[in-house]
Amino acid sequence: MLRVKSPQDFGAGLVFLAIGIAGLYFGRELAFGTSARMGPGYFPTLLSILIIVIGLVLGLQGVTVEGPPIERVQLRPISFIIAAILIFGFLIDSVGLALTAVALTVFASYARHDVKPLESIVLGVGLALFTVLVFVYVLGQALPAWWGR
Amino acid sequence: MELDLFQNLATGFGAAVSLKNLGFALIGCLLGTLIGVLPGIGPIPTIAMLLPITFGLDPLSSLIMLAGIYYGAQYGGSTTSILVNIPGEAASIVTCIDGHQMAKQGRAGPALAVAALGSFFAGCVGTVFIAAFGPPLAAIAQQFNSPDYFSLMVLGLVTAVVLAHGSVIKAVGMVLIGLLLGLVGTDVNSGLTRYTFGIGELWDGIDFIPLVIGMFGIVEIIRNLEQSTLPRTQFSARLRDLWPSRKDFQDSWRAVLRGTGLGSLLGILPGGGAVLAAFASYTLEKKVAKDPSRFGKGAIEGVAGPESANNAAAQTSFIPLLTLGLPSNAIMALMMGAMIIQGIQPGSAVMTKRPDLFWGMVASMWIGNLMLLVINLPLIGIWVRLLSVPYRLLYPAILLFCVIGIYSTNTNMAQLVLCAVFAVFGYILLRLGCEPAPLVLGFILGPLMEENLRRSLVISRGDPMVFLERPISATLLAMTVAVIALIVLPQFRKTREEAFQE
Predict the structure, then answer these.
(1) Nearest-by-Cβ selection for A143 from B408, B453, B464
(2) pLDDT score for A54
(3) Helix, strand, coil % (nearest 5) of chain B?
(4) For residue B406, which of B418, B424, B392, B390 has the smallest C-alpha distance?
């Protein structure tokens, strides 16, 4: 009976395997060509095969050699941070940098457990003023400042 | 030759000493020190964040500023390592060991001073190193043909993988994934799009900045937030007697020399750079010490050696980029990205076509090191006070700067989605024990490697023997085999593991 001895290696093997197979699958319509005349699919296919080999080796290592466990994934930080990034993308064009900065700060602060709403709002307003001043006025970046474009 | 060197340096100082460029060197050094002091943000995301701002600058000013961030972070990192036992930056991890012990014994002043003076000395030597070895290497590089470039990249990537810490096979996998990601977009030869999934934003390829910020900047924030105790800092040691005693000097000058030499050499190697140099120097100091048991209990050599080494390596790691067009670590990959954005293809041509750029950068490094000495020693109190800013106030700011950096390169929602995707991807891979740095190296080299492979095989009509028939290429491949052989040798493996274990 096979037992996963090193979850990190085994997991990495699966990820690599998936990427290699995806590389082959989504590149299947690209012409391979010949060595003398490499088609657009030549190098990607070569790389995908090598990635699959690495994935297999790691998978094998995962069931034969003892290794450290995978640390527990905490959902709270990653989901709030990722959401904050996407919220920035949704808002910036319609409401401008100042309001978006406040929204991002408040949202990002919920990535931690003991949130202090008032503190986050004050921080957000401070950061909004700072970034509008520095990025829009001093550095002249192409960002809408106070309201959408 | 000798005369050339001085003439070249004169050109460089001429270019670097303009008020504007001095200003940018100062901004770079200040920012570098700042992020070096602050835990939770390193030079990689900072440089990536600032890339968009450099679009409007001229090439020399932007490179001067970005380089300043890199070596400035080496100085700043040592400050927090010594005072509060928190490495502000990966290259300063070893400095914590003896540096913080010294601080506990009330000798923080001498530790900081030795770190800064050693760094300054190493920075000066590193600059001379670049000036002396740059031109001959560039001359060799001019003989290179496609097969030689391909083999050089193979050697560079293999060495980078062997010298990086963590599992070698995972690092190889990460390099390959990076190469594959680098191919996304329109194929220059056939005009076909590859792996774009019908998304128009991907036709020009995956943007460098969202990838780097996602995998380094954002992942770092998430990881810090997962720790039950956020990076918190309590500074208690008092800064009296900043100046080291005579005995301190006697104890440390040899370590500074050894660290500088070791760092300069390791910096040139692909995959080397500041982190490896610092670890290697600490191991060396422990080996040559008469009484190794002093290490870990506040041995000044344990601060002087690694701090000199990481700064020397930070300087000399520019050599392969500026002469061969080969980035030796993730930061150099970013510098390469910055040069390409400015329309400059890094490589030997930079030295002949834009001597002011090459020598201006070299000169600015020396000036920057001098500035850092001034910034760090007298102003140390100000930097330390910054540490009292709690992380819960810091990370929303870092996150905001990251997304503004991405959005201002390309005012497009897709860039932020890409950043989010790479953040999740990088997070998963890190959980599985895969470091992101090799992926970035592969990513930037992907298109170049494919193009040189294609050209080589066109020349040879599809015969792969071309890589062995050309002497330069064959030599480079022989070196690659030697590097691979090294990792298989049990003796080397043991040393490698030890070096990263400390």
Answers:
(1) B408
(2) 92
(3) 75, 0, 25
(4) B418
Question: Min CA distance, A133 vs chain B (Å)?
Answer: 13
Q: How many CB atoms lie within 10 A of CB B334?
A: 28
Residues 6+ apart with CB under 8 A from B61: B20, B21, B24, B54
**Residue B1 pLDDT level (bands cut at 50, 70, 90):** very low
Q: Which residues of A touch B427 (CB under 8 A)?
A: 78
**Range among B274-288, B395-409, B420-434 with highest mean pLDDT value:** B420-434
**Which of B225, B423, B460 is closest, CB to CB, to A111?**
B225
Chain B residues with CB inside 8 Å of A68's CB? 433
Q: Is A138 touching B (CB cutoff 8 A)?
A: no
Distance of residue A2 Cα from the nearest chain B Cα, in angstroms: 20
Please answer whether residues B266 and B272 qualify as being in contact, where contact means their C-beta atoms are separated by less than 8 angstroms. Answer: yes
Q: Between B392, B411, B432, which is nearest A11 by CB?
A: B432
Please state, rounded to an integer, the average pLDDT across all residues of chain B: 80
What backbone phi and psi angles, to 5 degrees, belong to B194?
-120, 135
Assess contact for B263 and B316: CB atoms under 8 A.
Answer: yes
DSSP B76-123: HHHHHHHHHS--SSGGGHHHHHHHHHHHHTT-HHHHHHHHHHHHHHHH
Report pTM: 0.81
Q: Average pLDDT of A122-148?
A: 78
Give the pLDDT confidence of B79-113 residue by residue, as tens digits. Answer: 777 877 766 666 777 888 788 888 777 777 788 88
Q: Which residues contact B155 (CB under 8 A, 6 or more apart)?
A: B270, B476, B477, B479, B480, B483
CB-nearest partner of A127 from B172, B400, B434: B400
Residue B494's pLDDT is what? 64
Task: Return mean pLDDT, chain A.
Answer: 84
**Is B186 strand, coil or helix?**
strand
Residue of B nearest to A30 (CA): B194
pLDDT of residue B502: 45
Percent of chain B at pLDDT exceeding 70: 91
Task: Note the pLDDT of residue A17.
Answer: 92
Judge whether B400 is closer than 8 Å to chain A, CB to CB: yes
Nearest-by-CA chain B residue for A88: B403
Closest CA to B278 of B258, B251, B303, B306: B306
Per-residue pLDDT band at B329 (split at 50, 70, 90): confident
Amino acid letter for position B178: G
Q: Do A108 and B189 count as a contact with CB atoms less than 8 A apart?
A: no
Give the mutation candidate from A21, A30, A38, A42 for the B interface (greatest B CB count, under 10 A). Answer: A38
Rg (CA), chain B: 22
Interface of B with A in 54-93 (CB under 8 A): 56
Question: pLDDT for A15-46, tens place per residue?
Answer: 999 999 988 888 888 878 887 788 888 888 98
Domain boundaries, chain A: 7-64, 75-138
